[in-house]
Amino acid sequence: xxxxxxxxxxxxxxxxxxxxxxxxxxxxxxxxxxxxxxxxxxxxxxxxxxxxxxxxxxxxxxxxxxxxxxxxxxxxxxxxxxxxxxxxxxxxxxxxxxxxxxxxxxxxxxxxxxxxxxxxxxxxxxxxxxxxxxxxxxxxxxxxxxxxxxxxxxxxxxxxxxxxxxxxxxxxxxxxxxxxxxx
Length: 183
What we know:
Blueprint: E1 18-19, E2 22-23, E3 33-35, H1 37-43, E4 57-59, E5 67-71, E6 76-78, H2 106-116, H3 121-131, H4 136-139, H5 147-172
Antiparallel strand pairs: 1-2, 3-4, 4-5, 5-6
Helix pairs in contact: 2-5, 3-5
């Protein structure tokens, strides 16, 4: 008698797992965000024949996961398949764009703050969005507006600079009390 593996509760008959009706990444099992086919078409550096137009694709934002896009049919694409590196996969990188339309990265934000004492990158991106000059739906790997990511990157850079400034102040400050105080 042949053994029917699919009668086992442990057997997964679908290539994409579902948890509480939520489609999750086949690699890290985190919830994926739906993206339009046009986002994949714009982002992929491989032949567009690799896209299954009959399936829905999702974006995996987990930094610890190699998968960037996965389809409900079981196919997936990793960062090496894309034209751009993905900010969410390298949140600590200074050089990867957080805004793909206007080409802002944590490094450019840091430089602006160090040169001018502040950044208006959020206002500039907001103005560009209102003017309709952005194309986040096709230029941003997540397939949607980057403004939340930009705000988070600005906060992260400001916090790191605040920490750096505080550390520098501590190093430069004269000793207060203790054995180093002159009498």
